[in-house]
Design goal:
Elements lengths: L7 E12 L2 E8 L18 E6 L3 E5 L11 E6 L3 H7 L6 E8 L5 H4 L3 E7 L3 H13 L7 E7 L11 H5 L3 E6 L9 E2 L16 E6 L2 H14 L6 E4 L15 E2 L2 E2 H4 L2 E3 H4 L5
Parallel strand pairs: 7-8, 7-11, 8-9, 9-10, 11-12
Antiparallel strand pairs: 1-2, 1-6, 2-5, 3-4, 3-6, 12-15, 13-14
Bound molecules: flavin-adenine dinucleotide and FE2/S2 (inorganic) cluster (FES).
The site of FE2/S2 (inorganic) cluster (FES) has 12 residues, from loops.
C-alpha cells in the first residue's frame, strides 16, 4: 500500500455481515498492488490501515486477513459514527479508499519459540484474527497457542466461520456474558479463561486487543502467573486523523498511538485505557 499520505482506490469485492453491527470488507486495489515487505508480509499483524470514502473521511482499522494474502485485504468494521456508517452503506462493487499500513504491529520475531496467549474481547478481534492467520501459516515456529475470546452473546462472536480451521492448529476458548440456550462454551469474563491454559509462564508472550476493562482485569491474573509486563503486548485504540504522527489526535500519555504503537508493552500504557 505504501506509507504515503495519499489515499488509494480500492474496490469492495466482498461484504459479509459478521454480527448485527459489524461487517467484513474485502478490498482489492484498483490499478496498483500491495507492496510486499519483510518475510513476504503485506502488513504486520497489529498494524492499522486508514479506510475511507471521499466526502466522509477516514478511520483506522486493524486488518483481519492473512498478512501473506497479496490479492486483497479484509477489515472488520463496527458501526460507530460518521465514517463507519457511511462504510456500512456501501455495496459489493463500490469503490472506497485505503492507505497505510501504519504503526508497529505485534513483535513477530519475539514471539518465535514461545507459548502464545491471544486475549481479546468484543470487536477487538480483527488484528488478533490476522495474527492467528500468521502463526498458523508458520505453526512450527511457536509453542502452545491459545485464543481467549469473549463477547456479550454468541451472536456477537466475530469470525465464527474461522474457528474450526483455527482449532486444528491452536486452542480456541470462547466465552459469553449472556448465553443462548444452545451455547456449549464458557459463560463469564475473558479473564476467567486463563484457568484453561497450560503454558510455561517464563517462556510465554501475550497479545491483547480489546476493551480497557478487560485488559486491566487481566493484569491481576497474568502477573501472578509469572508473565512479565515486557512480554504482554497491548493494542491501544485512540481517535486518529493523520495516522503518521503529525496531528496529536492519538496520544496516550506521552506516546503517539499511530507512531509509537498501536501495540505497546503493558507497562507503557497501563491505566491509560479509554
Ligand atoms: C489502531 C486502531 C485499530 C482499529 N481497528 C478497528 C477494527 O479493526 N474494527 C473496528 O470496527 N474499529 C476499529 N478501530 C476503531 C475505529 O477506528 C473507530 O470505531 C472509528 O474511527 C469510528 O469512526 P466514525 O467516523 O464512524 O465515528 P466518529 O463519528 O468519529 O465517532 C463516533 C463516536 O465514537 C467515539 N469514537 C470514535 N472512535 C473512537 C476510538 N477509537 N476510541 C474511542 N472512542 C471513539 C467518538 O468519540 C464519538 O463519540 C480501530 C481504532 C484504532 C485506533
Ligand atoms: S493520528 Fe495524527 S498524530 Fe497520531
Amino acid at each position: 500500500m505504501g506509507s504515503e499520505l495519499h489515499p488509494k482506490k480500492v474496490t469492495l469485492i466482498k461484504l459479509e455481515q459478521l454480527s448485527s453491527n459489524v461487517k467484513l470488507f474485502r478490498l482489492k486495489p484498483v490499478g496498483w498492488e500491495f507492496p510486499v515487505g519483510k518475510g513476504g508480509l503485506v502488513f504486520n499483524p497489529g498494524q492499522f490501515v486508514l479506510a475511507g470514502i471521499w466526502g466522509y473521511g477516514e478511520a483506522p482499522f486493524g486488518p483481519a486477513s492473512s498478512p501473506f494474502e497479496r490479492g486483497f485485504i479484509e477489515i472488520g468494521v463496527r458501526i460507530v459514527g460518521d465514517v463507519t456508517t457511511a462504510l456500512h452503506r456501501l455495496k459489493e462493487g463500490d469503490e472506497m479508499t485505503l492507505r497505510g499500513p501504519y504503526g508497529n504491529g505485534y513483535p513477530l520475531d519475539f514471539f518465535a519459540g514461545k507459548d502464545l496467549v491471544f486475549v481479546t474481547g468484543g470487536c477487538g478481534i480483527p488484528p488478533i484474527a490476522s495474527l492467528i492467520e500468521y502463526v498458523i501459516a508458520q505453526r512450527k515456529r511457536f509453542g502452545r497457542i491459545y485464543l481467549l475470546y469473549g463477547a456479550l452473546s454468541p451472536k456477537d462472536l466475530l469470525f465464527e466461520k474461522r474457528y474450526k480451521r483455527w482449532g486444528e492448529s491452536i486452542k480456541v476458548i470462547l466465552t459469553v456474558d449472556k448465553p443462548a440456550p444452545t451455547w456449549k462454551g464458557h459463560v463469564g469474563l475473558v479473564s476467567e479463561l486463563t484457568r484453561e491454559i497450560d503454558i510455561k509462564p517464563r517462556n510465554t508472550a501475550v497479545a491483547m486487543c480489546g476493551p480497557g476493562p478487560m485488559t486491566a482485569a487481566l493484569e491481576n491474573i497474568l502477573r501472578p502467573l509469572g508473565i512479565s509486563d515486557r512480554r504482554i503486548f497491548v493494542s491501544e485504540e485512540r481517535r486518529m486523523t493523520c495516522g503518521i504522527g503529525k496531528c496529536q489526535h492519538c496520544t496516550t500519555g506521552d506516546k503517539y498511538v499511530c507512531l509509537d504503537g498501536p501495540v505497546f508493552y503493558y507497562d507503557q500504557v497501563q491505566g491509560n485505557w479509554d
